[in-house]
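To: structure subgroup
Subject: Chain for Friday's discussion

All,

I'm putting the inputs and outputs inline so they're searchable in the archive.
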Amino acid sequence: MSDFLASAYPWFKSIHIVAVISWMAGLLYLPRLFVNHVTAGPEAAAMLTGMEERLMRIIMRPASAVTLIFGGLLLSTPGVVDWSAGWIYVKLACVLGLFAAHGLMEKWRGEFARGENRRPAKFFRIINEVPTLLMIIIVLMVVVKPF
């Protein structure tokens, strides 16, 4: 099995990167839709509800699943991760943070769909920065491996 993982590593890594990019696009775009949704009239709100649902269903959920599956395969590939180094744990904690943000966005999308949102636009503008900060830390950990 380890020979298969090692030979497939470039493919797994490529698929993982594409999935992460797709997922991040959704994590960065959905809060912006929420900002617009807060101030939208009823007709625009209906359109935004549909856009939010399709973004989650067609892009974010599949991309997060592919990210998780292929990230797991990369972690399972012998010699890829030095588990005695600290960077991998910081990276994995940030990945958990991205999944938590995704889960919260699922919750908020449902609230918008039911007409139950009580959060102001400023809240979603601030939330929009969380995936960006986590992504920066993840990239720094993976590329620089500072510790």
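Points worth raising on Friday:
The chain has one domain: 2-144.
The first helix runs from residue 2 to 39.

D.
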